[in-house]
Every structure is written in structure tokens, then in C-alpha cells.
Design a protein that fits this description.
Number of strands: 18
Mean pLDDT: 88
Bound molecules: zinc ion
Distance between the termini: 47 Å
Shape: globular
CATH topology of the largest domain: Alkaline Phosphatase, subunit A
Low-confidence stretches: 1-65
Largest sheet: 8 strands, mixed
Helix content: 25-40%
CATH superfamily of the largest domain: Alkaline Phosphatase, subunit A
Length: 501
């Protein structure tokens, strides 16, 4: 009888969740009373307060014969879905007519939701630090993901990225939702290996062979990849960033939304970033890529609607804008010549951690005044050479104010068109060749780095402009939709009533 109640309401997995986080009264009640209390607690926890659900049927009394029990559908959660289209410039959406872009989904979302004119990014404006800010609401130095690749002066980590969630020093939206009894799904989001989410489809790669598909399977929630492949088809390997692979992951996310009805789902799509790195800005190839992503976004939007009974919140965000790249600049040989780093002897007192439009200069001992002065003099000399394309050198107080690159002693900020690389030898400046004509990573106040944000759903003001917002606002805004808060978030809930901000 007790099992039949649980089965009828279809809540076994979430009952287990509430049992983990449920109230002490529920945990100490009689078995039957405990289950009823759990179901009630669950019904309350599954729905964001901002979008109250219709009242569920009361739990069946223990003495009622099963034959007379009215059938009870499991209550559907109203999902919050966050899709990141990597590298989406806001002008592609807001000036779609000028660009001749056929992106009906994004246009409809702007018309029916609330959109920012621009999102100011974080330092550096690259993928992994930014995506971590989107799910934590804090700057990179606080959340701990400081660049795409880990700090690795001599390349010992084989180009490894910040894949592992244990590097994130603050709670994520997925974790906070899960702990509040709201099942959360992190689909192919950066830094999600081992993330405290209810479901994880990991983003990680090694050798870019098909063997990497096993790595995805092994680092995702047990059984998830098998289930997706049985129902939707092959899950692409870790570093597979063509539009077809974005489409395949989005299709999987849409199926998952309807099947498992999570309260929160985040999905990362990368093909537009790849196209712009390769091609530069606003080319036919770039626009074709965006139009295809818009198509699959439309399908995902419909899946979210069906999953949430037409009341889902759907947000599309990007992590950074894009800028045309004309020249690749390599400053590392200058640091070698100055005796600051020696790869052969594996010795260093200062080195460069490049992130495209910016690069951090990291001292092994940041308090070493002699090295600090030597580096300062070198950077001033390099900045004076206009051919190198250095815009300016940021000092500690500016770096701290921007909240990026941890305890780096300096940040080299490049001028538009100049892109910083990390190579031990070769010329200081070379033309950006075919196959690499666009980049990012420039300072967050560069208008070209502005990112996209649009959100629609029940209670979101229709057709409204949010003006310019901050990347750190994304997580608190999503949290507000979920009815939870992020302790210590640096941003604000864009849809909070003024008195609640
Ligand atoms: Zn990116």
C-alpha cells in the first residue's frame, strides 16, 4: 500500500531527495505519516514560488481502498532552462534585420521576453571563467576558474582545461537547486566534471579520438549517456564543436526535459564560437551556423514548454562577444630573454598566462620586489613598442577591481586586432592566418566583448529591455526564477521587485 502510493504519484526518486533534505518532523514521523509529509514537502519544493502550480490532489488516506483512489498525475515542475550560445554577439540578435539573419526563435524570445542590450563580461572574457560566473554569480577570482586552461608554466598538464568542478570554490546553481529539492541538470556545461548536480552530462576531452566518448560516459551521471543514446542517438565526444554536434546535444536536452522534467537545465552550445574563431565576424558561414542553432533552440524551447505545461522560463545567454583578429602576438620569448623563465631548466620567476585579448603575468613569488620591478620595466618597454599591439598594462589594484586572474601581478591588455599567444619561440608578431580570424578575451569594458542575454517565461515583462547588465546578474536572476537564493552573489536578480533587490 505504501509503495503503491509512492508509485502512483511517481515520485520515488524525488522522495529520496526530500528524505535527504527533508524536515526533522518528517524524518521522525510514523512510516506512513512520514511518506505523506514527504510528498507534501516535495510538492511544495518542486515549484518555484514565482510561478505557483495548481494545488495538487491531497495524499490518499491510508485506509482508502486503492480502487477508489482518483488517479493522480505526477505534478510537473516548471523548468528553468539556460542555454549558452558561445560567442553570440548581441548585435546579431538585436540587428538581425540589418544582418539579414533568419533567427525566428531568438527574435520571438526578445519580443516575448526581456533582453539586455549588452552583458558586461568578466576578466578574462573567455569561456570557462565566464560560464562559471553564470552559475555562481561571482567573479573568477572568487569562484576559482581563472582561465580556460589551468596554470601550467611548462605544459606538464598536456593543455588540460579547468574541467573539474572541485576547482569551483563557491556553490553553483545546480547544487543549490538540488539541495532545495529541485532536480538540476548540467548538460555539457563547462567545469561540470563531478559537479553537484542531479544529472551531469560532462564536458571533458583528452585526445580527440572516439575513445573520448568513453570518457564522457565515465564522467557523466551513471547511465545518463546510455539512456540518451538509446532514445536520441549518439552523444558526441567531448571536443566536438560542429553545429551538428550542438544540435545533437540540444536534441538530447529536449528529450531529457520532457522525460525527466528537471527544475533546472543548463546547456552549452559551441559551434558559433568555433565558426567565428575560424572565420571572423558576420560571415555567411557564421550566420548559417547561428541560423541552424536558432532552429534547434526553437525545438528545445518547445520541449521546455511541453515539460512545464507552457510555463517554463527559458533564457539564452552568451559568454562573450567576438572581435576580428589580424595579428598574433607572442611575448613569451621576451620573458625568456629577460631570464624570467627557462623551459629547458624548468625554472621560472615570472611567466605569461595568455587568454587571447589579455594575458596575466604571474610571479612565482608575488612579493619578490626585485622580480616585480624587472617585470614592470620589461612590460613598460614592450607596451611602448606600438607594433606589439599592447593597449595597456593593468596593475594589482585594477586586477583586483576586475576580479580576475587571481593573484597575477600584471595583466597585459591587447588592442583590437591583436591576439596574445603562448609559444616559446617564433616571431613576436605574425599575421593571423586563414582559419583563425576571430577571438575574444579582451577587457570586459571593450564593447566588442559584450555578451547576449534574453529571458522569457511566466512573470517576465514582455518585450522589455533590461539595458546593459553584468554577467554576475545571470545566476541570481535564474535563482530568483527557481525560488532560491545564492549566498554571496555579487550580481542581482534582474526580475526582483525593486524593494526585494
Ligand atoms: Zn566562449
Amino acid at each position: 500500500m505504501r509503495m503503491s502510493i509512492a508509485r502512483r504519484v511517481g515520485l520515488r526518486e524525488t522522495i529520496e531527495r526530500v528524505m535527504r533534505y527533508g524536515s526533522p518532523e518528517a524524518m521522525h514521523g510514523s512510516m506512513l505519516g512520514r511518506r505523506s509529509a514527504l510528498i507534501l514537502a516535495l510538492l511544495m519544493a518542486c515549484h518555484a514560488p514565482a510561478t505557483p502550480a495548481p494545488s495538487p490532489p491531497p495524499p490518499t488516506p491510508a485506509h482508502a481502498p486503492p480502487a477508489h483512489t482518483p488517479p493522480a498525475e505526477p505534478p510537473r515542475r516548471v523548468p528553468v532552462v539556460l542555454v549558452s550560445i558561445d560567442g553570440l554577439r548581441p548585435d546579431y540578435v538585436h540587428r538581425a534585420d540589418e544582418h539579414g539573419l533568419g533567427i525566428p526563435t531568438l527574435r520571438a524570445m526578445v519580443a516575448q521576453g526581456a533582453a539586455a542590450t549588452a552583458v558586461r563580461g568578466v576578466l578574462p572574457t573567455v569561456t570557462y571563467p565566464t560560464h562559471t560566473t553564470m552559475v555562481t554569480g561571482v567573479s573568477p577570482t572568487r569562484h576559482g576558474v581563472l582561465a580556460n586552461t589551468t596554470f601550467d608554466p611548462f605544459g606538464d598538464n598536456h593543455g588540460g582545461w579547468y574541467w573539474y568542478a572541485e576547482d569551483v570554490k563557491v556553490p553553483t546553481l545546480w547544487q543549490l537547486a538540488d539541495e532545495a529539492g529541485i532536480p538540476s541538470a548540467s548538460f555539457y556545461w563547462p567545469v561540470n566534471v563531478g559537479a553537484k548536480a542531479t544529472w551531469v552530462l560532462s564536458q571533458v576531452w583528452r585526445a580527440d579520438t572516439d575513445d573520448d566518448r568513453k570518457l564522457t560516459r565515465a564522467t557523466s551521471t551513471p547511465g545518463l549517456v546510455d539512456e540518451l543514446e538509446a532514445n536520441v542517438g549518439e552523444v558526441p565526444r567531448g571536443r566536438a564543436w560542429a553545429v551538428e554536434q550542438d544540435e545533437q546535444r540540444a536534441r538530447a536536452a529536449g528529450w531529457f526535459l520532457e522525460k525527466h522534467n528537471p527544475g533546472l537545465l543548463t546547456l552549452h552550445m559551441l559551434a558559433l564560437d568555433s565558426a567565428q574563431h575560424y572565420d571572423g565576424l558576420a560571415t555567411p558561414h557564421v550566420f548559417r551556423t547561428l541560423e541552424r542553432l536558432d532552429g534547434i533552440l526553437g525545438e528545445l524551447r518547445e520541449a521546455a514548454r511541453r515539460s512545464g505545461g507552457g510555463r517554463a522560463t527559458m533564457c539564452v545567454v552568451s559568454d562573450h562577444g567576438f572581435s576580428r583578429v589580424d595579428k598574433i602576438v607572442n611575448l613569451m620569448p621576451e620573458l625568456v630573454r629577460a631570464g624570467l623563465v627557462d623551459a629547458r631548466k624548468r625554472e621560472w620567476s615570472a611567466t605569461l598566462w595568455a587568454a587571447g585579448g589579455t594575458g596575466a603575468v604571474v610571479l612565482r613569488d608575488p612579493s619578490d620586489q626585485a622580480v616585480l620591478e624587472k617585470v614592470r620595466a620589461l612590460l613598460d618597454r614592450l607596451a611602448a613598442d606600438k607594433s606589439l599591439g599592447i593597449d595597456r598594462i593593468l596593475r594589482r589594484d585594477e586586477i583586483e577591481a576586475l576580479g580576475g586572474f587571481g593573484d597575477a601581478s600584471f595583466v597585459v591588455a591587447m588592442r583590437p586586432g591583436f591576439y596574445l599567444a603562448n609559444a616559446w619561440d617564433g616571431p613576436a608578431v605574425r599575421p593571423a592566418g586563414p582559419g583563425f580570424r576571430g577571438g575574444h578575451g579582451y577587457l570586459p569594458d571593450d564593447p566588442e566583448m559584450a555578451a547576449m542575454f534574453v529571458c522569457e517565461g511566466e512573470g517576465v515583462p514582455v518585450g522589455s529591455s533590461l539595458g546593459a547588465i553584468d554577467m554576475r546578474d545571470v545566476a541570481p536572476t535564474l535563482a530568483g526564477r527557481l525560488g532560491i537564493t545564492i549566498p554571496g552573489a555579487e550580481g542581482r536578480d534582474l526580475f526582483a521587485r525593486p524593494e526585494a533587490r
